[in-house]
Every structure is written in structure tokens, then in C-alpha cells.
Amino acid sequence: MNILFIRLSMTFEKLIKIEQLKLDKIKEPKQRDEILKTIQEKYIKEINRLIELLNKSQDAQSSELLKQIKETDKLFFEIKGIQVRSHILFSRHGKCTSWGQKKFGLNPNAALSEEAMRNMERTSQSTGNLLFYFPNELPLSIGVSPLNRALQTAGLVIPKEIKNAKIAVLPFLAENSDAPSGYDVRSIADMQKLYNQLSFWTSPIRKILLKLSLWIFSDQDFDLLKKGRKTAVEKIQEHGNKILLEERDDVYQDLDYAGDKIEDTKIFIERAAHQDCWLFGHGKNFKAFFQTVLGITSDFDYGETRRVYKIEDKNNKSSLFVPPYVMFIDQETGKIRGKYTGLIGTSLQKQSEALSDGEIYPDVSTAIAGLGMPVSTPEHWEEQSCPSPSTEVCTDLKTQHPESKTLIVKNF
């Protein structure tokens, strides 16, 4: 295994050097394009081999293979004249099934399964290998959904060696859901508030499901949820700043959030500079972002972690780059495994217009801008105005099918 791994990585590096020498000698655009196409095909092939090795490897070998996958990405960027400006990880929460923890959507703010929590107890010992930068260069920036299962996942997955992260609980990372299991509700009063706000004529399913949950669950159930949430938050805070609001003895909550989750996520990414960012959230929310921004329509599995590079080419054009693989945390073993997709996605960025008054969300912008700063109270956040984002992502909605072996590159 080790001999095979070394031979493969050395072979790829040697191939890249050979192709680089060819590029240095050739100026004709068509010939250069052919060489770059060959390089991309070899990159895809090497990634596929490394993922196969990763999925057969043991702990020590897994660590080296995860590093080699990053190095392969770097080599590919270097020969194409691409600079990495930041690195973002999107992680869906661990196992929380519809029939088990979510009770077919009726269980409010559903938590992780106990089995998943046990199996991920040691995961944080290896997740540092997913980071692109050295943590001491610039602190890791972490955004977490306020829902229990996302907080619990973050508490188990954030690399154990990280102690200086900038952490924020962000309402735009909450799930896109019509059921109470996907709401950031923390009491019967919260559910009653949402129920009263809904019209049966415009949201009949949501109204009915909330009513059923109000009949079935009590504040005692929410007390158990809060206990689990606080345990998760205490673990998260070991890695950086406090996110527990003293006056509430809980993390930040915004039942009235009405922002554009995709736009707010893009703002978060745009503000990242030469650092790792890690977002912990939910399948439908993340799927909507990837579909709208990158045209990638595949679902997120439990514990799936997708890598997105913010890059800049020789012409100083900025874009998002999705490599031809995804990582995931095996919910039975807690180990990091990979899935080869064979697809590369990119999305061009451009200057954006300022937000209108109706699109201003002080709580979100302050949370993003103040990552790592002392925790402010909600009352203080309401006094802030939202700075207009400087850029936004311009998308092409071409569809990619991760199961396909065909390479699709999105051109702009």
C-alpha cells in the first residue's frame, strides 16, 4: 500500500513537470489548450486513484493520502497559473433519519442519532487533514447552523488541534424545511409563535405539522434538547471564541430571519481571505447553494463534506472551484472516506449592486463580520447596519451528475 501510494504520487508529479516543460516551449494557443486538456485528464485520473486508495486505507495511511489529495490539487492549480485565495468546507450534519430522530418531520429541532455521536467520537483526530492552510497562519473561520444536529456535528468534527478558531452561529445555515424537525425552535412558545404567523391558505402543510407537534411535544422535550445543545456548544467553544450568550444561556436564535440564505452564504465566502472556512449545516440548504451557484444538483449525504476553493487566475478573475471528489465521514466508523465524481465545477464572480433597505439583515452581517470578536447581544446587533457586499457569484445553471464518469467543466 505505501509503496503503491508513493509510486503514484511521484508519477503524477513527474508527469506534471514534463507537461510544464512542453508548455514553456509552446506559444500557439491551440497546442497549449491540448496540453492543458491532457493535464486535466491526468489530474482527474490521479484523484480517482487516490480516492480508491483512501477508501481502502488504515488510519496512518489515510492521513498521508488526504495530504496527497490536497497536494494534487495544488499541482493542478500551479500549472494552470491559479492562485488559491481561500478554502471552504461544507459539511452536512451526521445521521438524523426521517423515521428515527425526525419522527417524519414532527420532532422539533431534531438531534443526531446516539449511534452517530458514538461513532464520530474520534473523528476530530483526523479532520485537521482536510484543512488547506496551517491553522497558525490564519485562524480557521467556522459557521454553524443553530439547529441541534449541526451544532452536535461541529462539536465532534472540528479538528482537535484547533484552539483559535473564529466561530459564529449563523441563521442562514439553518435547514430549508416545511417541518418542525428543521426549525430552530427551542420551546413550545417558539412553535406557537411560528404557528400563529402562518396562514393555512398559503402554508397548509407547515401549519398542520406545527399543530401536530404542539399536541405531541412538551417543554420537557425542549429541556432535553437544550441540554444536548449546551454539551455540543461547550465542545465547540474549546476550539475558539464563546458562542453561548450569557443573558440567554443559549446560542443566538433568530425566528424572524427572512433573508436570502444563498446570498448570505456567498457574502460569507467572499469575505474569506487566505484562510480555511468550515460551514456546518444541512442537506437541503447546501444543495440549494451548490445548485444555484455551481449547477451541481446532487444531494448531500450524512457527514458529506465538499471542498470549494476560491481561486484567481492569471487575468485576476475570481471564481469558485469544486474538485472532482467529495469527502464524507463514515457514520458507522467515524473515518474520513472519499467519493470520486469525475466532475469539475467553477463559477465566475463579478461586482454586485448594493443591497436595498429591504434586504438588510444586521444580525447576519454582524455575525459574519464579527467572527471571533466578543459575542454581542441581539439588542446590539439590531442597532447595526449591514455593509453592502462587494461581490457576488454569477452562476451558470448547467447541471452536473456526480455519478457520471464524464468530465464537465463550466465555462464563462
Q: What's the architecture of the largest domain in CATH terms?
A: 3-Layer(aba) Sandwich
The proportion of residues forming helix, as a percent range, comes to 40-55%
Question: Overall pLDDT, averaged?
Answer: 81
Number of strands: 10
Main beta sheet strand tally, sense and closure: 10 strands, mixed
**Given the structure, what is the number of helices?**
12
H/E element string? HHHEHEHEHHHHEHEEEEEHHE
Query: What is the CATH topology assignment of the largest domain?
Result: Rossmann fold
CATH class of the largest domain: Alpha Beta
Portion of residues in beta strands equals 5-15%
Taken from the alpha-carbon principal axes, the silhouette is: elongated
Unreliable residue runs: 3-8, 350-412
Class computed from helices, strands and strand pairing: alpha/beta
The domain tally reads 2
Kindly, what is the distance between the CA atoms of the first and last residues, rounded to a whole number of angstroms? 41 Å
* Computed Rg: 22 Å
What does it look like?
The protein has twelve helices and ten strands. It is an alpha/beta fold. It folds into two domains: 1-81; 88-293 and 352-392, Rossmann fold. Strands 1, 2, 3, 4, 5, 6, 7, 8, 9 and 10 form a ten-stranded mixed sheet that branches. A hairpin with a 6-residue loop joins strand 7 (325-329) and strand 8. Helix 2 packs antiparallel against helix 3. Residues 3-8 and 350-412 have low confidence and may be disordered.
